[in-house]
Amino acid sequence: MDPITKFSGTMVALANNDIDTDQIIPARYLKVTDKNGLGAACFSDWRYEADGQTPKPDFPLNKPEYKNASVLVGGHNFGCGSSREHAPWALLGAGFKAVVSTYFADIFQGNALKNGLLPVIVDEETHKQLISLAEEDPTAQVAVDLEKQQLILPDGRGVTFPIDGFSRYCLLNGVDQLGFILGLDEQIVVYEGANAGRVKTA
What we know:
By secondary structure, the chain is of the alpha/beta class.
């Protein structure tokens, strides 16, 4: 997992509320256990015609001006539904580094953080401003500063977003939970050596 510190990118907006994980990545793609190729299936049922291959020209992710967008501005309650880890995999595969919303479903938020996709929670006023910016000016960029926990708008205004300390540490250092534990190997060996032979009593 690549470390996340600070990055800038353009935005694309899908302002629908209650975008669930089945819309992000339909259930028929859940047979795979590999992340590779899931980006092309991201929002597949919204993105393509009934044949599953012909792009719908009016869908935002199919418009050329949003081709390189790395920040997705979603509606309220983003990522609700099932607990599939494939949802953040698909969003990452589609080129997104962060998703901005006023609220994320808990399980999706946890899965995103564990896989290197940053969920950014903002207030309603900022959310509306971002949607307008994305729709009116596809070249408008925002910056995400994880160290400062700020989303920086094109006008320079910084908006602080919440993130738990452990997830922030892992993302800043590019490690998952297992990687964090492995990084403590020396301390674990010292502790085990110091406590070898000790018997726990009730």
